[in-house]
Amino acid sequence: MKIAFLGPHASFTQLACSQIFPENELIPQSSILDCFNAVINGEVDKAVVPLENSIEGTVSMTLDYLYDFAGIHIETEVVMPIEHHLMIHPENENFKTIISHPQALAQTFHFRHEHFKNRETRDFNSTAAAAKLVSENPQEKWAAIANSYAAKLYGLKIINSNIQDFEQNHTKFIVISKKDHLLLLNIPKTSEKTSLLITLPEDHAGGLHQVLSVFAWRQMNLSKIESRTLKTGLGNYFFFINISNEWHPILSENALEELLSIGATVKFLGHYNEYLLES
Ligand SMILES: O=C(O)C(=O)C[C@]1(C(=O)O)C=C[C@@H](O)C=C1
């Protein structure tokens, strides 16, 4: 089986991916979009992408592509602790620019503001891609924010450790594929959930209330609801909803039917387990 992940090697996504799929062929991609495309085009069987961080919130690109790509399902979700370090090329200790993935830069904002306020920052495709870039360009005055495995793999020197702004820093990653398949890992699950993407019926007072009541009176427990712009004009949104109950086929089928009958559109992303991984 071939598994795509947001690479290159030593990205956080790879650390999660290699714990989920220790025996499979892991194929690095340079963006989250490439991970989705690799699944849709059949180049790989599944892909692992980040979905949400406990400090910075949702990875918007992943949410957008879950909506945009027809036929994508979530097979499982894993949560992994995230520790960021500031690293430089050992032969060039001066740095003017800090490079990393936007999520990592955001998760370390207060650290950077306190210690390196005047250094400019540059967004890059992943933390590991930033570390690789610094390692390949010793002549540049660059530092990267990435994990300790990236520092080791790309020969960089860590100058500040554990620079995330909050001690508790976790990122959720999902396994996506074209199959509505439940992927079970060999460790105890932490929870079970169902994910849906919903657009409301035509704009009218109480539209969202009507949709939420479909779940409320069936005692389906919503653990997350997030709105995201549809990009068709200001004020137009889709909703990402997680239901935390166990899966009751009849109750759930009825709920989906009722949502359709009130004019909502519903995309079922999957019913799956959540697991906690090591860092
Ligand atoms: O840049 C990486 O190493 C990634 O795997 C991406 C990513 C993310 O998009 O959230 C994953 C975990 C951390 O939250 C920071 C960056």
From TrEMBL:
Q: Name one GO cellular component term.
A: cytoplasm
Q: Report the superkingdom from the record.
A: Bacteria
Prephenate dehydratase domain: from which residue to which, for each copy?
2-178
Alphabetical keyword list: Amino-acid biosynthesis, Aromatic amino acid biosynthesis, Lyase, Phenylalanine biosynthesis
Any GO BP: L-phenylalanine biosynthetic process
What pathway is it annotated to? Answer: Amino-acid biosynthesis; L-phenylalanine biosynthesis; phenylpyruvate from prephenate: step 1/1
Catalysed reactions, semicolon-separated = prephenate + H(+) = 3-phenylpyruvate + CO2 + H2O
This entry's Gene Ontology molecular function terms read: prephenate dehydratase activity
Leader sequence segment: none
* InterPro entries listed in its UniProt record: ACT-like_dom_sf, ACT_dom, Preph_deHydtase
Record-listed E.C. numbers: 4.2.1.51
Matching entries from Pfam families are given as:
PDT
What is the protein's given name?
prephenate dehydratase
Q: Which organism is it from?
A: Kaistella flava (ex Peng et al. 2021)
Organism classification, top ranks? Answer: Bacteria, Pseudomonadati, Bacteroidota, Flavobacteriia, Flavobacteriales
Gene name for this UniProt entry? pheA
